[in-house]
Specification:
Pfam families: DUF6401. This protein has 109 residues and is an all-alpha fold. It is built from 4 helices and no strands. The protein starts with a helix and ends in a 6-residue tail after the last helix.
């Protein structure tokens, strides 16, 4: 697996996280829902996935699939997320970004 592919995936996920406004964390009740989505994403990615695939690459691919599917149904990413009323797609993307942040190696470690 290419280090560049992993870097590109992380860059995509970081940009998506910024676009969703995850730096200003959603309210605690929403975080619980995001964690539930994260568990579902982990389960989905755990089935039939090669052990050599990097986590960031898998997460970025999943997020791209969610974005493509949602766009084909007319979904548009909100300019500003109203977290207490966020839709399924936004919550799922937030979960993917949250998982990616958890998986990032600590610099210098």
């Amino acid at each position: 697996m290419s280090v560049w592919r992993d870097f590109s995936a992380r860059r995509f996920l970081d940009r998506l996280s910024d676009e969703l406004g995850l730096a200003t964390a959603p309210v605690p009740g929403v975080l619980a829902v995001v964690d539930q989505h994260g568990a579902a994403v982990r389960d989905i990615l755990a089935h039939g996935v090669s052990a050599v695939a990097h986590e960031a690459v898998l997460l970025a691919g999943y997020a791209r699939g969610v974005l493509d599917g949602a766009a084909s149904h007319g979904w548009r990413q909100p300019a500003r997320v109203d977290w207490p009323n966020a839709d399924w797609t936004t919550l799922r993307l937030a979960a993917v970004c949250h998982l990616a942040r958890r998986e990032q190696p600590v610099p210098g470690a």
